[in-house]
C-alpha cells in the first residue's frame, strides 16, 4: 500500500509543479527576475518535466502491483491498433504545430492555438476535439495492460487532463473571448462526438475573424 500512496503522491506533486510552472503568472515572474532564463524558458520547462516524470515512472516499473486486467486475443489486437492510431495521430498533428518552438529549440512561434499571443488557428483535428493531444494520450494510456500502479496512473492522468483542460481554457477564453466560447459550444473538449464538430467552412470562418 505504501508504494501506491507514494506513486499517487509523486504524480500529484508532478502535476502541481507542471501546472504552476506552465502558468502565465509564474512565467511573468521568471521574466521579471531572470531575463536570461526566460529566454530559454520553454526548453528548461520541457527538460525539467522530462526529468521529474522519471520518478513516478520508476515507481511503476519497480512496483507494478497485481494485474487488474490484461488484453488477450482479439481485444489485444483492437487495443494495440487503437494505440498505433493514437501514435499516428500525434505524428500527423505535429505537422500543424511549430515543434521547434514547442520543444524550446526556437522562440516566438505563431503557428497554433494555445500559446499566449498566438493567432487563433485550428488544425484539422481541432475541428473534432478541442485538445487532440490529450485525447490521443488518453487512448494510449487506457489501451495498455493494467497492473494496479498503471491503473492509479491512468485515473490520476485522466483527472488531471479534465482539470487541466478547464484551467487552460480559462486562459484561452481570456485571450480569444467570445470566439473561443463559440468554438467550445461546437466541439467537445477531450473525446470526439460524431454529432459535434466544425465543418471546414465553419473553422475557416472562426479563424478568419481575427482579420476582420
Describe the structure.
This protein is an all-alpha fold and 212 residues long. The chain has two domains: 1-63; 67-211, no CATH class. Helices cover 65% and strands 2% of the residues. It is built from eleven helices and two strands, in the order H-H-H-H-H-E-H-H-H-E-H-H-H. It has helices spanning 2-22, 24-33, 35-38, 41-52, 54-62, 74-93, 99-102, 132-142, 148-176, 178-186, 200-208, and strands spanning 67-69, 146-147. It has a two-stranded antiparallel sheet with strand order 1-2. The chain starts with a helix and ends with a helix. Mean pLDDT is 86; it is low at 108-116.
Helix content: 55-70%
The succession of helices and strands, N to C, reads HHHHHEHHHEHHH
Strand percentage, roughly? Answer: under 5%
Average pLDDT score: 86
Low-confidence parts = 108-116
Number of E strands: 2
Number of helices: 11
Shape, please? globular
Quaternary structure classification = single chain
Largest sheet, strands/sense/barrel:
2 strands, antiparallel
Structural class comes to: mainly alpha
Strand order of the largest sheet: 1-2
Q: Report how far the terminal alpha carbons are from each other.
A: 59 Å
Please tell me the total number of domains.
Answer: 2
Computed CA radius of gyration, to the nearest angstrom: 19 Å
